[in-house]
């Protein structure tokens, strides 16, 4: 990319990773195996939808859009001490883990949003 005067524009650096919300929302980990899931309750747990509501509340400004089944997105801008702005995009994934005939399996899981709202 070039600016109006033909000088090259430096592309912003893009870094991806996993966030441990119990620790720091801007510290990225290399693998999801290095972070703890925020919600770990079973589908029949009476506190499940309160935990899901809390997970949504952790997203800056709450979830701004819904992607594929069980994924919600949010964005945030952070200013560093040096005055640089860093844009963060977050994706919150819900999955259900169960023991199948070939071992443990994870599938996308969609929370019932009416139950999330009822726990607001």
What key attributes describe this structure?
120 residues, alpha+beta, three-stranded antiparallel β-sheet, 2 helices, 7 strands, elongated
Question: How would you portray this structure in words?
Answer:
The chain is α+β, with helices and mostly antiparallel strands. Helix content is 14%, strand content 34%. It has two helices and seven strands; from the N terminus they run ββαβββββα. It has helices spanning 48-58, 113-118; strands spanning 18-20, 24-29, 65-66, 71-79, 85-93, 95-100, 103-108. The strands form three sheets. Strands 3-4-5 form a three-stranded antiparallel sheet, with no helix packed on it. The chain is elongated, with a radius of gyration of 18 Å. The mean pLDDT is 85.
Low-confidence stretches: none
- Average pLDDT score: 85
How much β-strand is present in the residues?
25-35%
Q: How much is the radius of gyration in Å? A: 18 Å
Determine the structural class based on helices, strands and strand pairing. Answer: alpha+beta
Query: Quick one: overall form?
Result: elongated
What is the number of beta strands?
7
Question: Which strand order does the major sheet show?
Answer: 3-4-5
Quick description:
This protein is α+β, with helices and mostly antiparallel strands and 120 residues long. It has two helices and seven strands; from the N terminus they run ββαβββββα. The protein has helices at 48-58, 113-118; strands at 18-20, 24-29, 65-66, 71-79, 85-93, 95-100, 103-108.
